[in-house]
Amino acid sequence: MATYTKLSSGSWRVQVRRKGRYVSETFLRRDNARRWATETERQVDRGETPTKSRIARLKTFGELIDLHIDDMCDVGKSPRRSKAAALDMLQRHLGKCNLAALDRERLIRFGRDRAAQGAEERRTKRSNDDDRIFPFNHKSVGTAFRRGCGDLDIRDLHFHNLRHEGTSRLFEAGFTIEQVALVPGHKDWKMLRRYTHLKPEMLHTIHAAKVA
Questions:
Q1: pTM, entire model
Q2: pLDDT tens, 70-81?
Q3: For the chain, what are the domain ranges?
């Protein structure tokens, strides 16, 4: 018979006592513990020596990542480019971490370090005479946007649509034509009409905001 105990770390310890045999394992999830216990009981009934599951043998976060990739490949859904890159990054930075030591605080610290590193990289790439908010090559941005849409299975969405949406939002916020024209860079104000889809009720909202 199998008994399950939830540890303070959040993991689950399962103990199997059957026909005079006693074995135990610790798992991250109860479902995995239950499956292992069921198989272990069958092995004991067949007179076999219980074996450790692959999950139970995991010691590092890198091994867990490898198991996740293998599971995805087994069901015919290998990680796509963006996810593969993210998993590779996690493998490099956290792969050697012991699973028992990888707690919430460690992950929060890692996230903050990555955010600070990214900010520093952007400041380094940005030259002193470049006053653009996003100093990136437009082709690189477009490529990254299409790749992201592909990874998320988003169809019929183009990067140029964001320009359309952003321009409309500026008008909805109450900015004048002269002010809005400074953002998308249109030379002819008439071109702004195709990007503007104000609803009648928005006029009341804009007026109320100005009065306030």
A1: 0.40
A2: 878 877 888 888
A3: 2-45, 61-121, 159-211
